[in-house]
What we know:
Chain A has 172 residues and is an alpha+beta fold.
Amino acid sequence: MNEVLKSLLERRSCRKYRPDPVPKELLDQVLEAGTYAATGMGKQSPIMIAVTDRETRDRLSRMNAAVMGSDQDPFYGAPAVIVVLADRNIPTYLYDGSLVMGNLLNAAHALGLGSCWIHRAKEEFDSEEGKALLRSLGIHGDWEGIGHCILGYADGPCRPAAERKANYICRV
Amino acid sequence: MNEVLKSLLERRSCRKYRPDPVPKELLDQVLEAGTYAATGMGKQSPIMIAVTDRETRDRLSRMNAAVMGSDQDPFYGAPAVIVVLADRNIPTYLYDGSLVMGNLLNAAHALGLGSCWIHRAKEEFDSEEGKALLRSLGIHGDWEGIGHCILGYADGPCRPAAERKANYICRV
């Protein structure tokens, strides 16, 4: 079977991580794959914030948990987080940012890393604390949080894929 | 270089197609890759309509062109179109549908097919004609058009990738 197809089919969402850091050379490859996602009119409306600094990672975790009124770590212990945001002024921004997320997830799997899309990035970066965090990183503009791609080494095997729904595909 | 990473980096949007049909075994593999995209809470909120019937393909083309007041073929002559829609009742539907689109685009490239995301699926399937088309296919519910993945054999080489923007990635 085609290696790429195999990888797309075998990627799973990972919800348990070892604390080992993500090697920089792997993180760089995942990020590069993100930049090559298709974007509407080639406008490259998204940006990525690659977070490996523990304090910032934990701060994001706390902010994310707060959105759902929890104090657990919504990042499942993953040591690295790539936040994808996209420019609200570009009509396709939400689709564009999602395609970046997809490339990150698929690239991570291809490199032997576990990953998972964690939502609530919109609420997180619409908050005053989120906006202040962006400013502190020198990021100015009208950015909407699209998602978090958490990254790390899976602690144990992922669950097998659920069955695909029967009516996923219609042909005409 | 990792084969999967290479494929993610080399995928391009194709805007010129030969009329040759997409072999069924390749279309099936592309569709299968779509079904394995991650979805929020594993809810599998999207559906795909794989269109190879010429009349239906041309009808979609006309509807899509009408959204932008054009009478050109927005599908660039591609013989096959996969329409992705997603269930508006599921909060992550727009992100989920976009990830399906991403897997379709990446799978197509891996199999030697050209592809491109064509927008305006939302407007197309919010129209009375679009809703009637869904009903005629036995598709009932609250579906929003996410995108069209046009598919076929590229007629000539694709344009090389534009340079990635300088500030795509921020690290912390």
